[in-house]
TrEMBL record:
It comes from the Eukaryota. InterPro entries: Integrase_H2C2. Pfam families: Integrase_H2C2. This is Integrase zinc-binding domain-containing protein. Residues 57-90 form the Integrase zinc-binding domain.
Length: 90
């Protein structure tokens, strides 16, 4: 998954700009080639590129949603969305 995220930044116009000039985007940070947005109270969210087909036919965003749904334990769409907003950004 993380290899797909890292590789996906190259095909995403917005994240490419951040990688090229990180000082122009102070709300983002880069750690070992992975981009995070500095969210509320210093919490970082992993930035997910919107690139189709990096992991087979599914987008990385779809994989995040599927993973979150399984992690939350099928407790509903609101809790799944809260979990995603806490840890991921796209």
């Amino acid at each position: 998954f993380m290899q797909g995220v890292h590789a996906g930044y190259k095909g995403d116009a917005f994240f490419t700009k951040i990688l090229e000039n990180p000082s122009h985007y102070p709300t983002f940070s880069i750690d070992e080639g992975v981009i995070y947005t500095n969210y509320v109270m210093g919490v970082r969210c992993l930035c997910i590129p919107r690139i189709p087909g990096l992991k087979g036919p599914r987008r990385l965003t779809e994989l995040v949603i599927d993973y979150a749904h399984k992690m939350i334990g099928h407790l509903g769409s609101m809790r799944t969305a809260e979990y995603i907003r806490r840890w991921y950004w796209w």
